[in-house]
Design goal:
Layout (H helix, E strand, L loop, with lengths): L2 H10 L1 E4 L7 E4 L1 H4 L2 H14 L7 E5 L3 H12 L2 E5 L9 E7 L4 E7 L8 E9 L3 H11 L5 E9 L6 H4 L4 E7 L1
Parallel strand pairs: 3-4, 3-7, 7-8, 8-9
Antiparallel strand pairs: 1-2, 5-6
Adenosine monophosphate (AMP) binds next to strand 2, strand 7 and helix 5.
């Protein structure tokens, strides 16, 4: 991707200090998503990166992961699988509890969403510490899929979440802070 495009995305992300808690600088991507040329550029760049990797399913994390994840599934012509907060999925689920800085959180996936021949691209909007993605990877692994790739729009390099995922999972992020 050209430097110009990377900078266009980075410059359009809005920084919100002390949200949702004091000390966190929230990267608000709604200011990027509302611009049609940036929205399609993100989808096109991600789709180009994964075009020949044999992806069969996009697995996206609630809720901001659904936005680009859904568009990416359409663009790549593959299925879409949501990873959701507890109690939202109606059929039988696998459940993963994971630690946050304060307390714990839980994610779920439908037990019949994936099978052992799937090649999965796990997508979320942003990689921080990597805890959320690791929990989602654990859920995907329960179905014994063939391979898992992981993608983000934004990666916060200073939190080193990548080191918890890669290896063994290949991580691709469009922009880095
Ligand atoms: P982590 O599990 O620490 O990698 O956090 C990633 C998840 O939390 C993603 O679903 C993000 O949407 C959200 N998140 C964490 N930190 C931020 C941040 N600084 N700005 C926006 N979203 C964040």
């Amino acid at each position: 991707m050209s430097d110009f495009l990377i900078h266009s995305i980075k410059d359009s992300i809005r920084n919100i200090p002390d949200f949702p808690v004091k000390g966190v600088q929230f990267k608000d991507i709604t200011t990027v998503l509302k611009m049609p040329e940036l929205f399609s550029m993100i989808v096109d760049q991600m789709a180009a990166h994964y075009a020949n990797m044999g992806i069969t399913k996009i697995v996206a994390i609630e809720s901001r992961g659904f936005i680009i994840g859904g568009a990416l599934a359409y663009k790549l012509g593959v299925g879409f699988v949501p990873v959701r907060k507890p109690g939202k999925l109606p059929a039988e689920t696998y459940t993963k509890k994971y630690d946050l800085e304060y307390g714990t959180d839980t994610l779920e996936i439908h037990r019949d969403a994936l099978h052992d021949q799937d090649v999965v691209l796990l997508h979320d909007d942003l990689l921080a510490t990597g805890g959320t993605s690791l929990a989602a990877i654990d859920l995907v692994k329960q179905s014994g899929v063939k391979k898992i790739f992981v993608s983000f729009i934004v990666e916060l390099d200073f939190l080193k979440g990548r080191n918890r995922l890669c290896p063994p999972y290949e991580v691709f992020s469009l922009v880095h802070f």
